[in-house]
Design brief:
Number of strands: 32
CATH topology of the largest domain: Pnp Oxidase, Chain A
CATH architecture of the largest domain: Roll
Largest sheet: 9 strands, antiparallel
Number of domains: 3
Structural class: alpha+beta
Shape: globular
Helix content: 25-40%
């Protein structure tokens, strides 16, 4: 069913036993995010903070589980979304040989037309209340992490119109609140809003912008969806709700927004103004995204529903709520990729530790040699998959969420020299490891089955390895378990990964180890989820994944991966390196002390306790 408004959604969550109301007064500055981080990582419920120091409650973690994202998107199982799109696409594109076949399409067309947005005359419930004076401080905007540049609106749906054709776009771009009437507008250069901004800049015109908050969660999800350019997000929202989105015109510009959202922030961005330093911000990568220049959003009107609820989310070290939003995207957009671009694809999965597109696992129906490499190139050219860094291709019967099977298939069927494909291309703006901003290396692994299965027994000379001064730990549990992966913790130093790997391979200290992974001295080698997260963030495959060669110029059959932090002194790395996102000790202690007041249940330790031991010197920027 489509939700009438956010209250309707909250009531459904409560009915399903998926919501906790917190009545004690809390502080939106750090305290809310520290509570939420503990609850999310423990697999807990949505939280409604009713006493925020403002007149508005905060709803957070509302889509932070598989069950809750299914409730939000109107399905019994998130897998149903892909099946629905597949059935719709096949019905619409199947050959129609007779007049009767064409007539049979009328009900389908009628259903699709019913999802199209409808413009209403007059005001909507989102315009019931008008602020006499614009004051963003009246909203319980979160300051999420200690080194954030300030408070950020984290669940905004940003509405823009193209200057040239008036086409509508919805996107989700974080917004740092600078003062009562001004925020940043952090739209990345690849996003639709940034494209519209460039059109207005070229035309020398001021750009109308409207931001909505809340309403049916389908609106929030649609703003995050990687839709093709010029495809209206309202159609996706209508499809998810199985009901059209009812729109009303803003009071001060010509943008139409859903009439049932909680808040409407109307205003403009002036491309003729200078840009402002925005950030840092503890981001979904688990590291701070560093300060950079973005335009100002000037808020000229704020309206809201009666009994409005302020929606928020937090991001940081995975898993977070965005992992489940990503799960929906994975399931929804698998079907179009399979049907229109890569028909041999069987399945796709993005592990949370890969922070969305850094790591993608895909399975295919393989019918010829080299097919995995064909699929790699196709995926790297498919929309936001262009940001992918590490891509793994398996046979169709591999369960991609069974990580033991995944690593076994890589061990058994990947030749580290012949089956690894290197490439270059666009990267996410937030990728901190690439040597160039928003551009870097990619690596694809063909783990499909070959004629010969690997059956060697890896050998690791731990005693001699530990005699190398830079090595602090040799973690060979994966090798002992039958996987050809060896983890080694290294002290940071100049070209340390290349020098140590050269010594290891030339002295034959390991044998039949396909993948040698170096991690930082502060990392916990036995925490495999964390190791994967570090590799996904800290590696630029073009620079950090390499082979060593023997005296005859032949590569050793081992792929080396350097997942250490890069610095100017040791690696000639010219960019700042961000710090890990953690809470400060003062807030951890506060939440520890107050935990019994919140009424959430059994005490949960702060996830930041582990990561505070792994911090680099410095604040948002590592020293």
């Amino acid at each position: 069913m489509a939700f009438k408004n956010s209250i309707d959604f909250i009531q459904q969550l409560e009915k399903e036993g998926e919501l906790v109301r917190i009545k004690t007064e809390i502080n939106p500055v750090l305290e809310v995010s520290e509570i939420t981080d503990r609850v999310i990582k423990a697999g807990g419920k949505a939280l409604l903070f009713e006493n925020t120091g403002t007149e508005f409650p905060i709803l957070i973690n509302a889509m932070g589980s598989k069950r809750r994202i299914e409730l939000a998107l109107n399905v019994n199982d998130v897998e149903d979304l892909g099946h629905q799109i597949k059935d719709l696409f096949e019905n619409m594109t199947a050959p129609k040989e007779s007049f009767m076949d064409k007539l049979k399409m009328l009900p389908e067309l009628k259903k699709i037309s019913a999802w199209a947005p409808k413009r209403l005359s007059g005001k909507g419930s989102c315009q019931e209340m008008e602020m006499n004076e614009v004051d963003l401080n009246k909203l319980p905007v979160l300051t999420t992490w200690p080194h954030d540049g300030g408070p950020f609106i984290t669940f905004p749906v940003v509405h823009t119109l193209s200057e040239e054709k008036g086409l509508h776009n919805m996107g989700m771009y974080r917004m740092q609140v600078y003062d009562k009437q001004t925020t940043g507008m952090h739209w990345h250069l690849h996003k639709g809003g940034a494209g519209h901004y460039n059109e207005y800049k070229k035309a020398g015109k001021r750009m109308p912008v409207t931001v909505t908050l809340g309403g049916d969660p389908a609106y929030t999800y649609a703003a995050t969806a990687p839709l093709p350019e010029n495809v209206d997000e309202y159609m996706l929202a209508g499809f998810l709700r199985k009901k059209q989105v009812r729109l009303v015109k803003c009071l001060t510009n010509d943008i139409y927004v859903p009439e049932d959202v909680d808040f409407v922030l109307e205003g403009y961005v002036d491309p003729q103004e200078g840009l402002r330093t925005e950030g840092p911000f503890g981001d979904h990568t688990g590291y701070y995204s560093l300060a950079d220049l973005y335009p100002d959003f000037h808020v000229t009107k704020i309206t809201h529903r009666k009994q409005a609820v302020y929606p928020a989310t937090i991001v940081g070290t995975p898993p977070q709520e965005d992992a489940f939003i990503g799960l929906a995207t994975e399931r929804i957009f698998l079907a179009p990729i399979k049907l229109m671009m890569i028909p041999e694809m069987a399945d796709m999965h993005m592990p949370p530790e890969g922070v969305f597109h850094n790591i993608v696992l895909s399975s295919i129906r393989k019918s010829f040699p080299g097919q995995a490499h064909k699929v790699m190139n196709a995926l790297w050219g498919a929309g936001q998959m262009m940001f992918n860094k590490l891509l793994f291709i398996f046979d169709e019967d591999v369960q991609l969420t069974d990580y033991k099977q995944v690593i076994q298939e890589i061990t058994d069927y990947t030749d580290p020299v012949k089956d690894v494909l290197f490439n270059r291309g666009p990267m996410d703006v937030l990728d901190h490891a690439s040597e160039r901003f928003a551009e870097g290396g990619k690596m694809g692994w063909d783990a499909t089955r070959k004629a010969q299965k690997w059956d060697a027994k890896p050998r690791v000379n731990i005693e001699q390895l530990l005699a190398i001064p830079q090595i602090t730990e040799v973690h060979d549990d994966l090798v002992k378990a039958g996987y050809s992966f060896l983890l080694i913790r290294l002290k940071k130093g100049k070209n340390v990964a290349r020098l140590v790997s050269k010594q290891i391979l030339e002295q034959d200290l390991i044998k039949d180890v396909k993948f040698l992974i170096f991690i930082e001295e502060v990392a916990v080698a036995a925490d495999y989820a964390d190791v994967v997260w570090r590799v996904a963030n800290n590696v630029d495959p073009a620079r950090d994944c390499f082979y060593q060669y023997d005296n005859e110029g032949n590569p050793y059959p081992t792929l080396v991966m350097d997942a250490l932090r890069k610095t100017l002194v040791d690696d000639n790395f010219q960019r700042d390196w961000p710090n890990i996102v953690t809470m400060n000790q003062e807030t951890i202690d506060l939440v520890d002390k107050r935990w019994g007041e919140y009424g959430i249940g059994e005490f949960l330790e702060s996830p930041s306790v582990k990561y505070r031991k792994q911090l680099y010197p410095g604040e948002a920027v590592a020293e």
